Amino acid sequence: MTTNLSEELKSALRERILVLDGAMGTTIRSYELCESDARGKRFQDNNEDLLNNGDILSITQPSVIGDIHKRFYEAGSDICETNTFSGTVLAQSEFFVQDPRKSGGIKDPEFFDKKVINNSKLQDIVHEINVKSVQLAKEQADRVSQNDGRKRYVAGAIGPLTVSLTNVVDPNDTSFRPVTFDQVKQTYRHQIDALLEEDCDILMVETIFDSLNAKAALVAIKESKTEAPVIISAAVGRGGETMISAQKVEALWNTFAHIDPLAVGLNCSLGPDLMEPFLRDLGKAATTHISCYPNAGLPNPLAPTGFDLEPKDMHDYIAAFADAGLLNLAGGCCGNTPEHIAAIAKSVQGKAPRPVPSLVTA
Length: 362
Prior knowledge:
With 362 residues, the protein is of the alpha/beta class. It has one domain: Homocysteine-binding-like domain (TIM Barrel, Alpha-Beta Barrel). The protein is built from 15 helices and 8 strands. Strands 1-8-7-6-5-4-3-2 form an 8-stranded parallel sheet. Helix 5 runs parallel beside helix 8, helix 5 packs parallel to helix 14 and helix 8 crosses helix 9 (181-197). It starts with a helix and ends with a helix.
């Protein structure tokens, strides 16, 4: 699969700007599901609410997740991400393991080792989430590809965690971290193995707030010995720094350049207007393809999607990015519906992709 697929994707990226998908969470909310829908029969007695656990819907509401993938592919997405943004035992423990702090305890490496990392029931749920999510995305990728003759791809979404290896959580003990690097690596490896079990095409380490967490994910990918192409995408603040590890985009690239990713980019956090200068900086530093899938502006709880920008706005911003030679892959994060992606797909149609410096000089 992998070597030929990498060359296939690189060939496609030389010809045109590929289109990513939009926001799974935003689109899920449009289905107006309730808590009982999220629980289904299987998790009806779960102690914690599951409505905010979008990943569990791959198990309890697979028709909804499949329909969302279908809509994004039909809107013009070449690549859709699996519904696995929180598909790790560390992230899913928030919904299935009692928080020790409620009874005066703490979340520390011992807690995570005994109650989370080696929790076989939780491992089984997370494995199923990832396997089922790849299946749902691949089914729609194949179906839409057969209808219009253009190949679609599935990217295994590997998101950030609810714990940080960088952030100080106890001002009285600045060396304390709730988890260890090996624990984070192990939980990512568990997810990665499940994604690869169903032959997802791409691995996407995305919405990077903490570069050390991402480093653990990328070490896990390397140790899996997969040759699947990798996309690395960071979320940055108004100053252009990752929000926990505070790396500027050039430092971010230097951290991950040795991975030789298919693409590196920015997503989430900022709307396209605020993201543009940092996208330019990343493009100057990176010797690989550049991806960009920003939020539809900044959060606005009064807007229908929770974000201000409408499809036409995203069309105009992304078209300007393409005209400026900044893009190889484009899509949308929070607030971007299938209608937004249709507008983004139209905005880059027929426009030349950003020349990749390493390929231009080779």
